[in-house]
Structure formats: structure tokens, C-alpha cells
Amino acid sequence: MRIGELAATAAVSTKTIRYYESIGLVREPERTRSGYRDYSPAAVERLRFIREAQATGLTLAEIQSVLELKDAGAASCDHTRRLVERHLVDIDAQITRLEIARAELLDLAERADALDPTTCTDPNRCQVIEGSP
Fold first, then answer.
1. Which residue among 83, 97, 98, 130 sits deepest, i.e. has the most Cβ atoms within 10 Å of its Cβ?
2. pTM above 0.85, yes or no
């Protein structure tokens, strides 16, 4: 199949396919006599896998490491599990940071509710953010 058909079937753009080829995620296909790329049905599955793996939060480099194992005929489950666990640790840390930020913003909102806007006369600071003098 040609690149446009592959793109439509795999729900990615032709530009994405060309980029993936340039970084080695997708093998460059054989060419027809007229020079068109001629993709196999396996390219559709590879692109779908890449798209699904990205949706889980894996980076293209991480996806490539999984695909390299697969291409070599090796099992990738342990490697993929380590990648997923690393992302879980990162997400947990991000959740903690977001919870702290949320608590701080709630404090600021409560402070704002208690302030009299007519007393906010300093042109260089906001009493909601910096508190009262």
C-alpha cells in the first residue's frame, strides 16, 4: 500500500510516517518501479502499536527500545514493565507536586476571599499573592 493509504488505515499523518522512518521506528519500505513507497500490512500494525504506546506515556525512544527487542526476536515484557514502572513513579511524584500546588492555591483563594479589594493600593504587588504588609 502507498503512504496515503497507510496513513489513513493507521490513523496517522504521512508526515508522521516519514518522521518515524527517519528515526528508525518504521523501516523504509520497498519502492515500486515508479518510486512510490510500498508498505506491507505489517506497517499498519507497527504504527498502531507506536500510537498506542505513546498514549500510555512512553516516549519514542522508549518505544524504539521495545521495538528493537521485538525486531531481534527477544521478549520485551520485562523491559516494558520497567519502563511502565518508571513512568508510574514519575506520575506519583507529579501527583504529589500537584497536590501541594493545589493546597497552596486553595490557601491563596481563601486569603483573597478575606481581603478587602479597596485596600489593595500598592502598584507593584498583590496582597493575595504576597500577603498583607
1. 83
2. no
Rounded to whole angstroms, how far apart are CA atoms 59 and 53? 8
What is the distance between the alpha carbons of residues 12 and 4, in angstroms, rounded to a whole number?
10
Please give the pLDDT value at position 127: 85
**What is the residue type of 2?**
R
CATH class of the domain whose range is 1-58 = mainly alpha
> Where are the chain's structural domains?
1-58, 75-115
User: What's the average model confidence in pLDDT over 95-111?
Assistant: 96
- CB-based burial label for 101 (10 Å; 0-12, 13-18, 19+): exposed
Task: Give the long-range contacts of residues 60-65, CB within 8 A, separation 24 or more.
Answer: 60/23, 60/25, 63/25, 64/23, 64/24, 64/25
Given a cut of 60, whether residue 132 has pLDDT beyond it is no
| Cβ atoms of residues 60 and 102 within 8 Å | no
Please name the helix (run of DSSP H) or strand (run of DSSP E) that holds residue 12, with its range, or none: none
With 80 as the cut, is the pLDDT of residue 94 above it? Answer: yes
